[in-house]
From TrEMBL:
PROSITE patterns: NLPC_P60. Residues 199-326 form the NlpC/P60 domain. It comes from the Bacteria. Belongs to the peptidase C40 family. Keywords: Hydrolase, Protease, Thiol protease. GO terms for biological process: proteolysis. This is NlpC/P60 family protein. It holds the Pfam family NLPC_P60. GO terms for molecular function: cysteine-type peptidase activity.
Length: 327
């Protein structure tokens, strides 16, 4: 991806979405973000108004039965003194598996809100179609997932459900985050104050990446002496013992906790997407602090450090891999 001078960012803002002052403040805020251990992040695309609006629209389409299931998920979670993040994970799983309906049918012998299978030892048919039993069973299984609190909610849901379509839980993330706030009166699910401080890992990540400066960009390469953009970021985090997906689109959706760009820290993954669309990610870079990124640019160029740029494609959310993914 061809770099565009950072001065263009200051002239155009986020493709006209933000004014000059807002962009300048955003970039300035990144410098302080690296020193902030309690950075807040949204459950979907950061704590953005767009994500909240999308979640609200999706929630408005739910019927009374679905709302009742959501309320019960939250009530049971509160009774068990689980965090709002746990409620959100359960809501995402229920919405994806059954559209938040207590079904008496499903694929093979799958039943209930979470489509639990009696043949897979989830319980008897009567149990898995009992709303309280199924919610408690889901929470029981979630608590057995190592590092679930540090995972993206959809990734945690997949760790419980073990679906053949692991990324689909992310599609209802903004709706689940909105419902947790709407039904419970709390917005704590919309932050990642409990996300891991990866400072002890990022030194290894950035050190590895810096050693690759000057290596040629080759599409599809992932080292040891040549890289494409996502091959470099994947190998850098692997150097710290953390596994992230191979391609940039998957790194965005499943690479770790989502954090507002203004709260970026060294080691975070920065993304660009066509039309600023998070489903059209085409480039990823490693944020290294002071408004600079380290990346493998494009064919004919070499791994380099450069100023963060926009070009109308910079996404407002970065991804922070975590020690929960450490191998």
């Amino acid at each position: 991806m061809r770099k565009i001078a950072v001065v263009l960012v200051l002239l155009t803002g986020f493709g006209g979405l933000l004014g000059v002052g807002a962009v300048t403040g955003l970039l300035a805020g990144m410098g302080g973000g690296e020193r902030t251990s309690g950075a807040r992040c949204g459950a979907a695309l950061g704590a953005s108004a767009a994500a909240d609006s999308r979640g609200r629209r999706m929630a408005q389409g739910l019927g009374s039965e679905q709302r009742r299931v959501v309320q019960r998920i939250i009530e049971v979670g509160k009774r068990r003194e689980l965090s709002p993040r746990a409620w959100q994970i359960a809501i995402q799983a229920g919405k994806t598996e059954s559209n938040l309906r207590n079904l008496n049918y499903g694929h093979a012998d799958s039943l209930g809100v979470f489509q639990m299978r009696p043949s897979m030892n989830w319980g008897t048919p009567q149990q898995v179609t009992n709303l309280d039993y199924s919610i408690n069973k889901f929470y029981d299984e979630l608590l057995e997932v190592d590092g679930w609190k540090d995972m993206r909610p959809g990734t945690a849901a997949q760790s419980v459900e073990r679906s053949a379509f692991p990324t689909r839980y992310h599609e209802v993330e903004s709706m689940a985050a909105y419902l947790v706030g709407d039904e419970s009166g709390t917005r704590t699910s919309n932050d990642c104050s409990g996300s891991p401080n990866t400072g002890e890992l990022t030194a290894k990540v950035v050190d590895y990446a810096r050693k690759q400066l000057g290596s040629p960009y080759v599409w599809g390469a992932e080292g040891p002496n040549r890289f494409d953009c996502s091959g470099l970021t994947q190998r850098a985090w692997a150097a710290a013992g953390v596994e992230i997906p191979r391609v940039s689109q998957d790194q965005y959706h499943s690479g770790g906790a989502m954090v507002p760009l203004s709260k970026a820290r060294s080691g975070d993954l920065v993304f660009w997407g066509h039309g600023r669309d998070s489903n059209s990610v085409h480039h990823v870079a490693l944020y290294i602090g002071n408004n600079k990124v380290l990346h493998a640019p494009q064919p004919g160029e070499k791994v380099e450090i450069t100023e963060l740029w926009d070009g109308g494609e910079l996404l407002p959310t970065v991804v922070r891999p975590s020690r929960a993914r450490a191998s």
